[in-house]
Structure formats: C-alpha cells, structure tokens
Specification:
The chain is an alpha/beta fold and about 280 residues long. It is built from eleven helices and ten strands. A ten-stranded mixed beta sheet has the order 3-2-1-4-5-10-9-6-7-8, sandwiched between helices. The chain is globular and about 60 Å long. The chain starts with a strand and ends in a 6-residue tail after the last strand.
Length: about 280
C-alpha cells in the first residue's frame, strides 16, 4: 500500500515524519511504501532570495527518508514546484497512492491561511483518503496531538453512499483500531425524522466492527452535523475522526457540504477524510 506524506519542512511537518508512533500506525494498516513530497512555491524564481529552496529541501528530505527507511518502509522523495495541493494530489494520483498525509496546526486563523490552507484545499479536491495529522499549535518544537492514529476512531455517517465508502476503510484500519464510536446526526430537515431507524442502522455497522474485535459504541444526535460531530469528539476523545466527503461537483467541492471542511478545519484531533469512490 502506497502513501504520500506532504511536508513543507516546518517543525509541524517534521513532527509527523519523526514520530515513531505515527509510522508504526500507518505500517500496521498496510502502508509499506511512503512518498515524501515537498512543493517549492511557484512564485520563487531565479535571482530571488531563497532560490536554493530546492537544494535545501532535497537535503531535508534525504534526512527524513533515512528516518522512514529505518522504520521499515520503502521511500521515494519528490521536490516539485507549483501550487501545493495540486502537486500533492497529482503525485498521489500518478503513483496510485491509497492515502495522503498532511500535517496541520489547527484552528489559528493566521496559520490556517498558510499551513491549514493546503489541508483545506486537499480536503476539497483529494481523490485519495486524506489524513490530516493535527500538530501542537503554540509550541516552538511541536509534537503531534494524538498518537496511535487509528486506535480510537469516531466514524460520522449520514448513511449515504459516500459515508459507506468511508466505512469500508475499516477493512484495513481494523488492524490498528481498538475502539470505535459510530455517530449519526439527525437534523430538523431530515425526512421522516419521527420514524427514523438510525439506531438500528448504526447497530448493524457496530456488529461488523465487533466481529473484528473492535469495541464499539453508537451515538445518535440531533442538531447541526458539524457542531454535533465535534461535540462527540470532545466527549469521546478519539484519536481520529473518520468522515466521507461529498465532493461530486465543482460547486460541491467549494462548499464541501460544508460539514467535512468544517471538521477538517475545527477538529482538535486527527481527521481521515474519504472522498467518493471513483468511477472505473
């Protein structure tokens, strides 16, 4: 299984790559080939200060690659030029990656314009599952906020086809998952709310996970989906939220529902965003 790990060579990005726990977790779900990608901004041209970006980034990636190789992965490095989210997505598609990993410091408005913007743009456009690895926001030498990436999962579902696609990732996540919380949020706009069978639908999903030895609870809520999913995160403290993306059309990607984008931007912990299955 191939994965792309995007880095801007900041301390936040380095925290993901240097974490033995994170590497162990992605290895446990079947990743054996890791592609380290860094993007030189397209507005950096010859003659400008910092034009040695590419050489410096190659040296940094060589250092990271030794860490990843020592953890038992095959490694390839890519230093490319352009718009970060487009180039990261392009490499993931080219190599046939099953996972893209990007670090993010979280909710700071200023940082979201810079670091968080790549994560958000990838959330809108990715065609492979996207793991947003949350990093400490205020520290000079930051660490990841929640280790053991997939140990405690919070899976949010609206029972759509796209949510089912996200649930299917448990087929490999189960090798690293011990606990799961399955959440469905009913809204006042839901048709037939009074006759809802959400509890039984969640129970069926829970049975599948219990058969894999995953301790599972279910939780049906009412209200705004993003707010309630984040409230469930605060209550159950999962290591990662698993959610599907609806990005079928260009407009939908811009709005993103906009539940998925809200969760990527506002979650305290990690988020695994799964896009719709591609037509073959």
């Amino acid at each position: 299984m191939k994965a792309v790990c995007a880095t801007d060579l900041s301390a936040a990005s380095e925290a993901t790559i240097q974490s033995e726990t994170c590497l162990e977790c992605i290895g446990r779900i079947g990743v054996d080939e890791l592609h380290l990608v860094t993007v030189v901004p397209s507005n950096v041209h010859a003659g400008m200060p910092g034009i040695d970006f590419e050489k410096r980034r190659r040296r940094a990636l060589e250092r990271y690659s030794r860490v990843v190789e020592d953890a038992g992965f095959e490694v390839e490095t890519h230093v490319v030029r352009g718009t970060p989210h487009r180039r990261i997505r392009g490499i993931a598609e080219t190599i046939g990656a099953q996972l893209t990993i990007v670090g993010s410091r979280g909710q700071s408005p200023l940082e979201n314009r810079v670091i968080g913007s790549t994560a958000r743009n990838l959330a809108r456009t990715t065609v492979t599952p996207l793991l947003v690895n949350r990093i400490e926001r205020e520290a000079d030498d930051p660490d990841i906020l929640r280790e053991h990436l997939f140990r405690r999962m919070l899976y949010a579902t609206d029972f759509s086809t796209n949510a089912e696609t996200a649930f299917e990732t448990f087929s490999y996540l189960r090798h690293a998952t011990q606990e799961a919380t399955l959440v469905h949020v009913e809204t006042p706009k839901d048709p037939g709310l009074e006759e809802s069978n959400s509890d039984s639908q969640l129970a069926e999903l829970a049975d599948q996970l219990e058969n894999w030895g995953i301790e599972t609870r279910t939780d049906v809520r009412r209200g705004d989906p993003a707010d309630e999913i984040l409230a469930a995160e605060a209550e159950f403290v999962p290591t990662t939220i698993l959610v599907g993306s609806r990005g079928h059309s260009r407009l939908r990607r811009l709005l993103l529902g906009s539940v998925s984008e809200d969760i990527v931007a506002r979650a305290n912990g990690n988020v695994l965003l799964v896009p719709p299955a591609r037509d073959v």
